[in-house]
Specification:
Elements lengths: L7 H6 L29 E8 L10 H14 L2 E4 H9 L2 H10 L1 H16 L4 E4 L8 H7 L3 E7 L1 H10 L14 H19 L4 E4 H7 L10 H26 L3
Parallel strand pairs: 1-3, 1-4, 2-3, 4-5
Helix pairs in contact: 2-10, 3-5, 4-5, 5-6, 7-8
Length: 249
């Protein structure tokens, strides 16, 4: 297994760094919704699903933008696990070479990054595709709340082809729209069981229908964040009820 430490600047950014107490958090985003009960030490893993559902890992602007805004609203920090792995291993070219020569070693590195991130508090983590490839990774995500952001696969493919969105260096996805769609479908089918272990799912199509939008493109990042916050609040209420029910009379 390839062992390494996360880059020092990443550790310095986490809220509990230093002996003097919490580091300064960014000002919260002003959304028309607030959840005081969520000012807790929880980690939220956001998973982008890739299909008519959609899957953890293939990065898209939807996942990264939602993760950043969600973290801002909660006054948490946001990390994209693929980006952390790339930085820890020395950049995109190093990752591509590592994947070709030692895929198992690369997956071990993904697990090590998730292990280190899961030990930190007040984080929203955009989990890469490798996050659902191993039982050990899924267990690490149980340290927080895992959320599957369900986006139609064809929207992700369109973003890659038409908007030149770059997937993580570990994912070799290229070609015209049909080829890209085929590659994304294969990745989804390989990992769909892992995606299904998420605590909850926020589906783009359901959000659009609930809000009365005619097209999926009309759904904004803010719309998705609000739905995610409501679902987190529901999960926290359920957890509290279960804990109270388990207490002896």
């Amino acid at each position: 297994m390839k062992l390494f430490q996360l880059p020092q600047q990443l550790w310095l950014q986490q809220p509990y760094a230093g002996k003097s107490g919490h580091s300064q958090l960014p000002p919260p985003t002003h959304l028309p919704y607030s959840i005081p009960s969520l000012r807790l030490k929880i980690r939220t893993f956001t998973l982008l699903a890739l299909s008519d559902p959609g899957a953890s890992g293939l990065n898209s602007s939807i996942k990264s933008n939602l993760g950043k805004l969600l973290a801002d609203a909660l006054r948490y920090y946001y990390f994209d696990s693929d980006s952390v792995v790339e930085e820890a291993l020395g950049g995109k070219d190093a990752v591509r070479s590592f994947v070709k020569t030692d895929l198992k070693g690369f997956r071990d590195s993904e697990t090590e990054v998730l292990k280190q991130l899961s030990s930190m508090g007040r984080l929203v983590i955009g989990a890469g595709n490798g996050a659902v490839q191993r039982a050990a990774n899924l267990a690490l995500m149980r340290h927080g709340i895992s959320i599957w952001i369900d986006v139609p696969l064809d929207m992700v493919a369109k973003e890659i082809v038409e908007e030149s969105f770059q997937p993580p260096a570990s994912e070799t996805i290229k070609g015209a729209y049909p080829e890209v769609l085929t590659q994304l479908t294969a990745i989804y089918e390989e990992s769909r069981k892992g995606y299904a272990t998420a605590d909850t799912t926020i589906a783009l199509q359901k959000v659009a229908s609930r809000l009365g939008y005619d097209t999926l493109d009309a759904v904004t990042t803010e719309d998705m964040v609000l739905e995610t916050l409501k679902e987190i609040e529901r999960l926290m209420r359920v957890k509290k009820l279960m804990e109270e029910a388990a207490r002896p009379f």
